[in-house]
Amino acid sequence: MNAPHPSVWIERLTLTDFRNYAHLTLEAGPGPVVLYGANGAGKTNLLEAVSMLSPGQGLRRATFIEMARHGGGGEWIVAARINRHGLAMDVGTGLKAGVTYSRPNARLVRIDGETQSGSGALADIVEIAWLTPALDGLLTGPAAERRRYLDRLILCFDPGHRTRSGHFERAMRQRNRLLEDGSRDQALFEGLENIMAEAGVAIAAARCDAVAALNAVWQRRHQRRPDSPFPWATAILEGTLEERIAAGLAAVDVEDEYDRALAAGRERDRAAGRALEGPHRADFHLTHGPKDMPGRLCSTGEQKSLLIGLILAHAELSAVRRDGAPILLLDEVAAHLDTDRRGALYEELVLLGTQAWMTGTDRSAFAGLEGHAAFFQIEDGSVTAL
Questions:
Q1: pLDDT of residue 30
Q2: Is the CATH number 1.20.1050.90 carried by domain 138-322?
Q3: Apex 316 CA angle, 311 and 321, nearest 5
Q4: 10 alpha carbon, distance to own chain's centre
């Protein structure tokens, strides 16, 4: 397996008072990284630390206060030397006592020593995607989880998606408050609904584009390897705005329709206590391509293979759009795969040219990566390079 060199990878990771790590420095190469050890040793904590080098709340979606080490001073730091297209960059983030933050759940971010206005700046530096056991319910769980995953995928190559989503959410919350307060102020409603229509249609259009691109990647993967153990799939996007855009309507016409629908639906929304139409109600589903079966009806093993296929397609799409594959975080990914599927996954990762961080309890499960990956044994908050 001859791998292309990753365009972005972590050379050094340093943790201070993060989760169960009082202090840790880990040096890595551009290839895959395997973290193995007993349950509860801190493997997933390390992946979570890496995920904090990207925008948002990380792979556990925990509050930042929860990430501070028990028994520490309530502060924590995650710092990394990131190699980006051959140039080294120093990135750091954390929580510091005595600092006034602009939002209740905010953190400090510095890039090459310069303090940033928020974690969104990290999107320009590094792209990180992950697959954890918690995402096993992506196919069968609530629509909000699938929307969140799709929006994170879009953020990988369209950082402006976060801004549009923020505009929509703020306008919707303000409109909901007006409805709750019994307001009939026409001008206030119209102003907020105009923002919702403009931002909402832009969000829906970005999702349509991402799903179409994802489906195209799956078709290419299927043509390249029709017998892959990680089957191709079809993503189907559901939602009023999304369906109108997919039907070929101009965005400005969909905006006008949505604006009118919001105005006409005020009393209905007032009774419901929330907006009943918009991108916050959308959903997307995966269909198992070879079986032509909804992913939610597939067996547990088939669903796991579909999810791995999803993360690989995600990485391949990002590699095309951002000139390089993202860093992947794969928690306990080998636990439910047989030997052949493990081998196929490792081959995909090496050929993709990504620095994939993987966890497991047994080193032997990663035998297919011997000679291609850096191995670290994790034991009660300490790391040993092997």
A1: 93
A2: yes
A3: 125
A4: 18
Residues 168-196 have pLDDT tens digits of 999 999 999 999 999 999 999 999 999 99
Strand ordering across the sheet containing 283-288: 233-238, 283-288, 293-294
Partners of 34 in beta bridges? 358, 375
Q: Evaluate the CA torsion angle 63, 60, 213, 193 in order and state its sign.
A: negative
Delimiting residues of CATH 3.40.50.300 domain(s) in the chain: 1-127+326-386
Contact 126, 54 (CB under 8 A): yes
CATH for the 1-127+326-386 domain, from 3.40.50.300, 2.60.40.10, 3.40.50.620, 3.40.50.40: 3.40.50.300
- Whether the model clears a pTM of 0.85, i.e. scores above it, the answer is yes
Whether residue 15 contacts residue 364, with contact meaning beta carbons closer than 8 Å, is answered with no
Q: Other CB atoms closer than 10 Å to residue 90's CB: what's the count? A: 13
Angle at 334 between CA 363 and CA 1, to 5 degrees: 80
Positive or negative, the Cα torsion across 19, 20, 24, 30?
negative
Measured over the CA atoms of residue 66, residue 68, residue 74 and residue 75, the dihedral's sign is negative
Asked whether 331 and 310 are in contact (CB, 8 A), the reply is no
Q: Is 363 helix (H, G, I), strand (E, B) or coil?
A: helix
Q: Closest by alpha carbon to 348, among 232, 234, 225, 211? A: 225
pLDDT tens profile 127-145: 899 999 988 889 999 999 9
